[in-house]
Specification:
Number of strands: 5
Helix content: 40-55%
Order of helices and strands: EHHEHHEHHEHEHHH
Oligomer: single chain
Number of helices: 10
Distance between the termini: 14 Å
Structural class: alpha/beta
Strand order of the largest sheet: 2-1-3-4-5
């Protein structure tokens, strides 16, 4: 009999990937790294029929994730939850929007993880590192962007240690990739990956997660 496992991808537009909002399985996972991971593992583990769910929402900050966490995470009872978030939190601060009056990134992220650990103690958690590259419009305020993102990267790494989550480093992955091709080949606007960029995220995710205690098999 198949041993069903549910893997949930959560985050902002990078995870959303233009995913469908209905039952059309041709589009339900979007066209980003979540789709690439699901296609590879889904093929390799066909006998066990893992279920991959994408609930990323474009524009979300970590506070927005928490606001919909019961519906889009807890109620799905996932075995593994992968989260990639942070660039919109940084953007609100950098651009001085009303939603960036105070920085609640760490507080909201911690609250989300605390509740997840309490309600779904058996669920494995994967925390992906937020990332940027020096391209317009990010490069227009590069020093401010970099300061904020580095701070968030440190927070995510710290939270992964604190909650026993698997940490997937991505900034160094993109930095190294820029030695092979120019930054715009990987991330066209400093924030959103191209097809190759999503492939890079998927490759790194699989490399880290499949060699960890959360290995999906």
């Amino acid at each position: 009999m198949p041993q069903y496992k549910t893997i949930l991808f959560q985050g902002d537009s990078i995870t959303d990937g233009g995913r469908g909002r209905n039952d059309d399985l041709n589009h339900i996972l979007g066209h980003g790294y979540a789709y690439i991971i699901a296609s590879k593992l889904g093929l390799e583990l066909a006998e066990k029929q893992p279920l991959f769910i994408n609930r990323g929402v474009s524009g979300d900050r970590v506070f927005d994730l928490y606001a919909r966490w019961n519906e889009d995470a807890i109620s799905l009872r996932p075995d593994v939850i992968s989260i990639l978030v942070g660039v919109n939190d940084a953007g609100r601060i950098v651009n001085g929007g009303h939603g960036g009056a105070s920085d609640r990134f760490e507080r909201a992220y911690r609250h989300l993880l605390e509740e997840t650990s309490e309600v779904l103690p058996a669920a494995g958690i994967v925390l992906c590192e937020p990332f940027i590259l020096k391209l317009p419009p990010v490069s227009d305020r590069w020093e401010i962007w970099q300061e904020r993102i580095v701070r968030y990267q440190d927070i995510v790494r710290k939270l992964a240690d604190e909650f026993g989550a698997v940490f997937v480093p991505l900034q160094s992955t993109f930095n190294e990739a820029c030695m092979l091709a120019e930054p715009s080949y990987w991330i066209w606007d400093g924030v959103h990956p191209t097809a190759a960029g999503h492939g890079l995220i998927a490759k790194q995710w699989l490399s880290v997660v499949q060699q960890s205690g959360l290995r999906i098999h």
